[in-house]
Amino acid sequence: MSDSNSPSKNLTGKVALITGGSRGIGKAIALELGQRGATVIINYLKNHTAAKATVEELEALGISATRIKAHVGDEAAVEKLIGKIEDQFGRLDILINNAASGVMRPAAELSAKHWDWTLNINARGPWMLSIAASRLMSEGSRIINLSSPGSTRVLPAYFAVGVSKAAIEAVTRYLAVELGAKGIAVNTVSSGFVLTDAIDAFPDELGVKEIASRVTPAGRTITPTDVSKVVAMMCGEDAEMIRGQVIMVDGGETLRHQ
C-alpha cells in the first residue's frame, strides 16, 4: 500500500458522494476516489443488489464505503440524503453528480411525463443536490457533474437526454460562479460513448454499441476507468483553478467529421 502522503493517496480524509455509483462509470469513479484515499458514499435508486456488491468490493480493497438509497430527482429525498450524510459524517468534500436516466425517443414521440422524468434526474437533481451538499462543504471542496457529447451534438432518439445534458453544463457554469465564493470548484466531465449497461438503453437500430466499440483517434476505445481518472484529477488540488469547464474524455472521437 502506498504511503498516505503520496500523490496516489491525495484524497485521503475526504468524504465523497457518488450518485448512481453502483454500476458503470459511477462505480469506476467510486473505486478510483476510494483508492486515492476518500471515504465513499454510494447513492442508488433501484438496484439494491448492485449497490451492496459495490460497497463490498470497495471494502474488500480497504476502502471505507457505505450506500444510501435516494431518488435524486425528488426534492424531499435530496434533503433526506444530505441529512443522513451530515448525521453520519458531519461534512462532505466531493460530490459527483453521475446518476442519469432518460427516455430514448425522438421529440415528437415524447410526452411531458418523459421530459419531466429525464430533466428532473439529469439536471434538476444535480442543481438541488449541489446546493444542499454545499451546506456541508468547506473551502477546497469539489462538485463534478457528468455529461455527454449529446449536449451539443444531435444524436438519434436522444432529445430529452441531450437537452438535460446541455442543462447540466449550464448548471455547472452558474454554480461555479455562485459557489466559487465558498471555495467550492464546480466542473463537468463529459465522456464519449463507453461500453457499460447504460448503452443498453439505446435502441439497437441506432448502432450506439457499434459506436462505443469503435477505436478512437487515441488508438483504443474509452473505458470507465479513463473517465474516473479524469474525475479524480479534477477533485485534486492541481485542478484548483479550473472552474465551470466541460472536460471532454473521448479519445478525440468528437473531433471527427461524421
Output the keywords.
single chain; alpha/beta; seven-stranded parallel sheet; 7 strands; globular; disordered N terminus
Task: Explain briefly what this protein structure is.
This protein has 258 residues and is of the alpha/beta class. The protein has helices at 24-35, 48-60, 75-89, 112-134, 159-178, 208-213, 224-235; strands spanning 15-19, 39-44, 65-69, 94-97, 142-147, 185-191, 246-249.
What is the element layout, followed by pairings?
Blueprint: E1 15-19, H1 24-35, E2 39-44, H2 48-60, E3 65-69, H3 75-89, E4 94-97, H4 112-134, E5 142-147, H5 159-178, E6 185-191, H6 208-213, H7 224-235, E7 246-249
Parallel strand pairs: 1-2, 1-4, 2-3, 4-5, 5-6, 6-7
Helix pairs in contact: 1-7, 3-4, 4-5
Mean pLDDT across residues: 91
Q: Helices and strands, in N-to-C order?
A: EHEHEHEHEHEHHE
Strand tally is: 7
N-end to C-end Cα span? 45 Å
CATH topology: Rossmann fold
User: Which consecutive residue ranges, at least 5 long each, have pLDDT under 50?
Assistant: 1-6
Distinct helical segment count = 7
**Shape estimate:** globular
Tell me the fraction of residues in β-strands, as a range: 5-15%
What is the H level of CATH, i.e. the homologous superfamily?
Answer: NAD(P)-binding Rossmann-like Domain
- Major beta-sheet overview: 7 strands, parallel
For the biggest β-sheet, the strand order reads: 3-2-1-4-5-6-7
Q: Write down the domain tally.
A: 1
Q: Oligomerization state of this entry? A: single chain
